[in-house]
Amino acid sequence: MSTPEPEKTPRLDLADLVFGIVMLAGSLVVLLYAMALPPSPYDPLGPGAFPKALSGMLAALSLVLIARVLLRRTVARSETSLVYGVEEGERVPLARYLLAIVLAAATVAYSALLIFTDLPFLLLTIVYIAALGFVLSGRTPRDLAIAVAVGIGLGLATDLIFTRVLLIELP
Amino acid sequence: MLEAFAHLLTSSAFFVMAAGVLVGIAVGILPGITTGMMMALVLPFTYGMSSTDAVVLLIGIYVGGVSGGLVTATLMRMPGEPNAIMTCLDGYPLAKAGHPGRALGLGNAGSIVGGAISWVALVLIAQPLSRVAIVFGPWEQFALVCAALVMIVSLSGKSLLKGLIAAMLGMLLAMPGIDPSSGLQRLTFGAGWLTAGLDILPVMIGMFALSQIIADTLHLETNQAVIRSSMRGILISLHDYVRHGRNMLRSSLIGIGIGILPGVGASVSSIVAYTTAKKVSKEPEKFGKGSEEAIVAAESANNATTGGTLIPVLTLGIPGGLADAVLLSALILHNLQPGPMLYVRSPEIVNTILATHLVAHVMMFSLMTVGVLLFARLMTISRAWIFPAVLVICVVSTFALNNRPADIWVMLAFGVVGYALEYVKAPLAPLLIGFLLAPLAEAQLRTGLMASGGDFLAIFDRPIAVAFLLVGIAMLAWPPVAAAIRRHRQEQPLAGS
Questions:
Q1: Is residue A85 part of a domain?
Q2: How many CB pairs under 8 A join A and B?
Q3: Which run of H or E residues covers position B380?
Q4: For helices B85-96 and B51-76, what crossing angle results, to 10°?
Q5: A4 falls within a domain
Q6: pLDDT, tens digit (0-9, with 9 covering 90-100), for B110-127
Q7: Cβ–Cβ gap B181/A27 under 8 Å
């Protein structure tokens, strides 16, 4: 049988507090915009009613969350997940966080280069896959050779599949 | 239905289904890529396909993916798919004790039986339910969406508050764009690209694929031990089917029942089936140490969930999780109306979905039986080489849908949002379902109000709508009531002592 969570928690949950504040700020911005929307001549609700109701409820719920955190009341955690392996408060080595940041930054850079430059998809994809694969691997000289080979192979394969088989327009 | 089965035997449909099941099994085996994530990534590429081929491909991936997790769970003690987590507990010990083929065979048998029983339930329940749902007017539809959302929030675990916040956030994210009734722009904040609103796909790919990769990067594995498998025992005997028959049936029914509930999914069904099997077992002490009953229970339940989850999607147009949400999006992308009208306007699509669900299970069983040694090799591929390739597909598939570069930024932004929400343990299912169902809820409410001349109380003249609202209120009220009862029970012995 599971033990019920204690009603009070001794420490201030910063993550929940930040979450509540961000949600409150966002909902208030939306509420302000929604209140400025003109009524519709066609239906009683108009375009602003639903966003107003939703942002109002979100703001109220965020306030409850913030109040519970500040009063050191327990805020239960979700037990189901659609993104797996994220553990709050888990100690992950700093190097792993850096790796995740590098991955995100490389993907942003790859996307930006695809969108804003005329550099060919094939070249960018080979470099991206090889560079990121090498960074994520053990980074030995052997891994470098594998990264280059995988980059070329997967780059050519994706380019071929997207442009010749699926006939889709690339960014 | 027979036509649909015949269609699946044509070379093109057979090829598409085989490709789907193979990709699904591969995805199920490879840790770091989930079935729903792959379905979302593949969805834009189905745009050029016929709608029947698109659903054949997606159902193939779904069935293959749910089943493929068995291999990694058994040979590596690592769930390739989250729903295979219970299989790890007993599949691995049995494999380590020198019976890897037997462990895989039992799991595979459980999967095909669970899939077949859930197919029967799908066929028997879905059509009558759609006949009931077809008479729903705007008030009933609105109340149904509200009840479904509250149910998803309520079933997402203990966090009712965070679930409600996630659901509201999801619904709000669906609001920007052109108001469908008045044609006015709303919540576009002056950004031209927001005029068309946020597309579900970049949001889904970012939130579930990118954030999953970010999460996995924090736990990149070092060399994981893999048990060498053999074909011995991969086909279990008829006697084994009879011996485990009751367990298979019970676990399948659990899987179907839980699958119908929105926002719960195969992971929970395998846990419930495992726990139930342990409770009724004559040898509960073997659970966790290589119990055959445990493997059968977990695998029957998670495959049975596939049929259960399709029931609300097909009959009510209400998805319960990521895979169903992708399927629903696929129907919309192909200009089909999900929900009960699908049976009336596009019966061929419904029949294709039903037929594919069964045939894909048979194909999965055959492929897993014949090719398990080959599939097992996939586990040795490092995620360092998988992640960059998946990220390329994330970027390209996001762009491919509308040829809109802004979608790529939306996808990247939601990768961070998804990770952050998961970090604070806010459930993502209510957000996703809220995003998908908000336009429907709004449209139905506005239609209802237009018909009633702006009188919201008109909803109380509709008994079915009132019943849905009452279910929603009960689901909302139950968690605090249950907590109060638990507290009261806990305090009683203390007071008595």
A1: no
A2: 256
A3: none
A4: 50
A5: no
A6: 999 999 999 999 999 888
A7: no
